[in-house]
Amino acid sequence: MSKRIDVKDLNVYYGNFLAVEDVNINIQAKSVTAFIGPSGCGKSTFLRTLNRMHEVLPGARVEGEVLLDGDNLYGPGVDPVTVRTQVGMVFQRPNPFPTMSIRDNVLAGVKLNNKKISKGAADALVEKSLVGANLWNEVKDRLDKPGSGLSGGQQQRLCIARAIAVEPQVILMDEPCSALDPISTLAVEDLINELKDQYTVVIVTHNMQQAARVSDKTAFFNIAGTGKPGKLIEFADTTSIFNNPSQKATEDYVSGRFG
Amino acid sequence: MTATVVRKRSALTKGQLPKFAPYIVLAVALVVGAAILALIGFNAFGWGIVSAILFAVGLVSWSGAVEGARKAKDKLATCLVVGAFLIALLPLISVIVTVLINGIPGLITPGFLGTSMNGVTGAFDNKAAEEGAPVLGGIYHALMGTIQITLLATVISVPVGLLTSIYLVEYGNDRPLARAITFFVDVMTGIPSIVAGLFAAAFFFAIVGPGTKTGAVAAVALSVLMIPVVVRSSEEMLKIVPNELREASYALGVRKWRTITKVVIPTAISGIASGVTLAIARVIGETAPILVTAGFATTINNNVFGGWMASLPTFIYTQILNPTSPSNPGPSDQRAWGAALVLIILVMLLNLGARLIARMFAPKTGR
Fold first, then answer.
1. Which residues, numbered 187 to 226 in chain A, qualify as contacts with chain B under a Cβ-Cβ cut-off of 8 Å?
2. A85 contacts in B (CB within 8 Å)?
3. Would the N or C end of chain A have less CB density within 10 A of its end CB?
4. Shortest Cα distance from A32 to chain B (angstroms)?
5. Pairing state of beta strands A5-14 and A60-68?
6. CA distance B333 to chain A (A)
7. Whole-angstrom distance, CA of residue B39 vs CA of residue A116
């Protein structure tokens, strides 16, 4: 239950502004890939093009191909809604639905689409997803309480549980720990390590140590200057990016000389 | 030989007025004010104004002498703010007190809420005024008319207003159509209510026939006044729903219209509901548009689609302007004040209802 992603010659535009230029990348199934780079280099923008979430922003469009196990996400007649059921996403700030209980938050992907599900199957799905998000033991006694009453780290794991409840092939994470304290961050990082047994995980992070801890492969994005498009500078095994980068810019960035 | 310890004042403090200074100044101001007013002819209103000015001047200058210019300015600002607050509050209190005093005798008359004006003639009112017989007649027909007309107006306005605001917030994207709608909604907010009434009357004149006056026509007139309020308040409420929730829903593979109906609207529903309730409170007291669209009736009419209909504001209007007994307007006045009290109570209940609804639907945050 996971698919690989191949990106070919991808350009992302906001209106006429070229935000990300000419990205080619092959993301393996059942692995963790981290995107690192300075602010504004387009890593979040690029991440959003992997499940067509960039289309929510006005004026955003792409050129090029994103292949999910060979199927082009941007092919004619592809429904972005279908894409998003296959490629889930976790956001920077935890955003559980405030009107729903913990249980309903996990079931949101099913219930909001009006799919019929028996109570037994729903219970099983809630437990499986929350166990999968390492949250079950903390919330199993208060599934009917509102999701917004949890701590920030618990809310973020609830959002991960919500994302895996729709059984996607790929999970995208846009700086999932940047709003969390170190202990919650550790819990989420442990979770990412477990998720890669079943899912393809792509994570954007500002935190280079985090990329080094959780990812198998790392992509370094950089920007030549303000107003210039972001580019993929280097994509390799995480160990070689951090210990033996082939590009000067990568070395400068991971050794802390800028960014 | 013992050194006398001179208690030196801290270098960090300045002179301070005692805590009770405002009360002293207030007492002096009241006394001096009364004295001044006694010279030129006493009246309570003038006494209040003169005392307030004396109080402000006295407190500010005393504070300026003892505490310095900054504290004096602070006191002046406090006086201005409190004064403005009192000026704003006085009419409100005055209205409530007047309506209570004049309205309670009407409201507690037996049968006031349960009977209509059907068959109540000037002869009864003359009898009531001259021989002390009970005042007959009530507002049942007007109360029913108000409730039915307002309900129908709400049923028309809420779907139109809510859908318009959904278009503006979720689909409009600042397109020319969205900007045109916003502009015309703003224009509609400023339409005088009598014009809305004339519009509805002319509209039904054209499609049904001359002289069509029913509750439904009045409801259409009130909708014209209500829709812009509903659009505006719902639009604000939908706008403050965080975009993150929409994105979270899209990322789960939920379609846009389902995101709107199942995530955006439930999150904003408390604000929308209280906005709608306030819009109702705004139109429930309209008189002119109802007078030209539903006419006036003295009998119970429970059919909004046929026949003239009474309502509380038009009831008050006709009772004051054309008393049932022209020679003895007292009983009519009493009924009019009673109806006014009922109207105010209705509006208050609606406001309370809006708060309850807002609290009931508000997203829960408890653990």
1. none
2. 252-253
3. N
4. 19
5. antiparallel
6. 50
7. 86
Interface test with B, best of A51, A104, A112 (most B CBs within 10 A): A112
Q: Say what the ipTM of the complex is.
A: 0.88
Using a CB-CB cut-off of 8 Å, the residues of chain B touching A56 are: 246-247, 250
Report all structural domains of chain B as residue ranges with CATH numbers, in order of start: 13-107 (no CATH), 140-361 (1.10.3720.10)
Inspect the interface and report whether the beta carbons of B251 and A84 lie closer than 8 Å.
yes
**Each residue's pLDDT expressed in tens, for chain A with a length of 259 residues:** 688 899 999 999 988 889 898 899 999 999 999 999 888 888 889 999 998 998 888 888 899 999 998 889 898 888 988 899 889 999 988 999 988 899 999 999 888 887 888 899 999 999 989 988 888 988 989 898 888 888 888 899 999 999 989 889 999 999 888 888 888 888 889 889 888 888 999 999 988 889 999 999 999 999 888 788 888 999 999 999 999 888 888 888 888 887 6
CA distance A88 to chain B (A): 6
For the entire predicted model, the pTM comes to 0.81
Inter-axis angle of helices B122-131 and B330-361, to 10 degrees? 100
Say which residue the tokens 């038009």 belong to: B314
Tokens in use for B322? 């054309």
Query: Does A8 contact chain B (CB < 8 Å)?
Result: no
Residue with tokens 């909004």: B304
User: How far apart (Å, rounded) are the C-alpha atoms in residues B191 and B217?
Assistant: 17
**Distance between CA atoms of A105 and A192, rounded to whole angstroms?**
20
Flag whether residue A95 sits within 8 Å of chain B, measured between CB atoms.
yes
Which residues on A lie below 8 Å from B253 (Cβ)? Answer: 81-82, 84-85, 109, 113, 166
Per CB-CB distance under 8 Å, the chain A contacts of B363 are 98-99, 146, 148
Give Cα separations from A147 to A181, A198, B81, B93, B363 (angstroms).
Answer: 19, 26, 43, 44, 10
Token readout for A197 is 């047994």
Query: CA dihedral in degrees (A156, A162, A163, A166; nearest 10)?
Result: 170
Q: Where are the alpha helices (DSSP H) in chain B?
A: 21-40, 44-66, 69-107, 122-131, 140-166, 176-189, 193-207, 215-239, 243-251, 256-259, 265-283, 288-294, 312-321, 330-361
